[in-house]
Amino acid sequence: MSSSLSVYLLDVAATRALVGSGDQQLLDVVRSEFGDDLARDDEWFASEIEDGAPTAYEALRAVVHGGPFGEDKEHAFQFGYAYKRLCSLTGAFLDNSCFTPHRGAWLSVVDEGLRALGITAVSVEEFGYSDLPAPIPSTYIPGCGEWTHEQCLRALEQFEATKAKDGAPPPLEPEVVEAVTQVLQWLRHAESRPGFGVIGFKS
């Protein structure tokens, strides 16, 4: 079974602040402008919704209003996807071609490549964790992780420090080099936007 990674460039603090903001205007815009997307998601999760999971809009409304989230943890995935929707609406989608689809331990393999280049401030494997803003309930799918602006800057500093050292760069497989290069592109995008970082979702 393959997985995918969706990665967004955005103001991390501002995005997290949408959770529990009660911004009804935002909800109205989403429902009027992206109703077809909501309906498609409801069709995809029709059986789960029949079993009591919230619809896409209900989950989004709960996230924006800070609840209620219900007691059934099997339905928590809808709230994770609702937060992902907020990120997709407010952020810029970053090229994920090296990570979608991917199988097995690919994210940890890329992290090993990053560490070989001295980069420890960020980790793509963290996008598979459940680091959703409170009070969104934890969920295995989708995974979520974030890199703050400061982490992105630190990662680039680590990379530049490694480049400045004498000696040949460590040997890496071509596909790992390509993925690491894509990660560096994400970091460069964040570097150029004060306060901006990266939020990623694994599903």
Description of the molecule:
It comes from Streptomyces akebiae. InterPro entries: DUF7691. This is DUF7691 domain-containing protein. With 203 residues, the chain is an alpha+beta fold. The protein has one domain. 49% of the residues lie in helices and 11% in strands. The chain has a four-stranded antiparallel sheet with strand order 2-1-4-3, with helices on both faces. The longest helix has 18 residues. The radius of gyration is 18 Å and the shape is elongated.
What would a concise description of this structure say?
By secondary structure, this protein is α+β, with helices and mostly antiparallel strands.
Any idea what the shape is?
elongated
| Number of E-state strands | 4
Rounded to the nearest angstrom, the radius of gyration is 18 Å
Give the amount of beta strand, in percent.
5-15%
Mean pLDDT: 94
Helix content: 40-55%
Number of domains: 1
H/E topology pattern: EHHHHHHEHEHHE
Strand order of the largest sheet: 2-1-4-3
Spans of at least 5 consecutive residues with low confidence: none
Pfam families: DUF7691
Organism: Streptomyces akebiae
Protein name: DUF7691 domain-containing protein
Note the main attributes of this structure:
single chain, about 200 residues, alpha+beta, four-stranded antiparallel beta sheet, 9 helices, 4 strands, DUF7691 domain-containing protein, DUF7691
Strands, helices and their partners?
Elements: E1 5-11, H1 12-17, H2 24-33, H3 35-44, H4 46-50, H5 56-65, H6 77-90, E2 92-94, H7 106-116, E3 143-147, H8 149-164, H9 174-191, E4 196-202
Antiparallel strand pairs: 1-2, 1-4, 3-4
Helix pairs in contact: 5-6, 7-9, 8-9
